[in-house]
Amino acid sequence: MNSKQINAVNRIAAMFLDHLVMTFIIMFLAMPVFFIGFESSLENDTMALSSKFDWKFILMILAVSLYFNKDIIQGKSIAKRALNQEVVNINNNKVASPIKCLIRNLFIVIWPIEVIVVLANPSRRIGDFVAGTRIDYVSSERDSKPKIDFKQVAISIIIGFLILFGASFLVKEKVSEGAFVSPDYIESSFNKELSLNFEEKLNELQSKYLLNTNVNVYDSIKSDSLKFVSATFYLTQNFIENETQLEEIKNEIFNTMFGIVPKGGFILFGKFVYDGRSTKSSTERYYDWRNLK
Questions:
Q1: Per residue in 199-214, pLDDT tens?
Q2: Residues 6 or more apart from 125 whose CB is under 8 A from it?
Q3: Higher-pLDDT residue of 1, 6
Q4: Would you tell me how many other CB atoms lie within 10 Å of the CB of residue 76?
Q5: CATH number at residue 287
Q6: How far is it, in rounded angstroms, from Cα 123 to Cα 120?
Q7: 209 and 163 fall within a common domain
Q8: Cα dihedral 6, 10, 15, 21 sign
Q9: Count of H helices and E strands in the chain?
Q10: Residues 94 and 152: beta-carbon distance below 8 Å
Q11: Helix locations, the chain, DSSP H
């Protein structure tokens, strides 16, 4: 065991530096997703926005899941390498495996509690107690540069992704007034006449809120009796930044749509877009009013 003991200041420093580094990496990886996502919001084909396979969401989950796997290469994250620290097994004092590093990092989700534990016990937080690991300084007494087990590294990344992917659906079931339900609509049931009818009625709001509206209506959804409406609303101003004002605009737009098809008669994929010279914003959501109170 290394004679130099980990103290709370060094551990907190490593945790803080890890957070900065991993946040930067995640944002760097996510930037193309945000850019491509907004560019796609300006396309005229609104159905491209309601694809059943949301690869942008998958990439975001993968990027964020890397936080759980920050220590899987030889028991060291970037911050730990900089501060000469590593994750080791509590029993045999060897560098921890990628799987053990993943397990300990799953508890990052309760980081305020983890910080309190570190203040009392610098070498082991809750994740370490569960994984059977601790933090130590790099030591010449053990092999601090073990051969990388690429199989375990790959498994750890996959497990981290699956855990975060599954957890994301627990919190995405319902947000605000919109339900995250992607209906399996039948493309051959496209209703051109009703689509144009929606656009004509919504055009009456153009001078107030909308520059343009693009609507596609599908009469049939598999295993459901409702219609599916996909609409992109191009805003005259950046109302997206004002939540109260945007909700008022949504209510007026939706009430106009309810005048054509009753509220309980369709599921809506609504995309609100503002494309200004210096500011660009967009927000999207599925609305199934049967699930709303």
A1: 999 988 877 888 889 9
A2: 104, 107, 114, 117, 118
A3: 6
A4: 23
A5: 3.30.300
A6: 9
A7: no
A8: negative
A9: 9, 8
A10: no
A11: 8-41, 55-65, 78-82, 98-105, 111-120, 126-131, 150-171, 192-203, 243-258
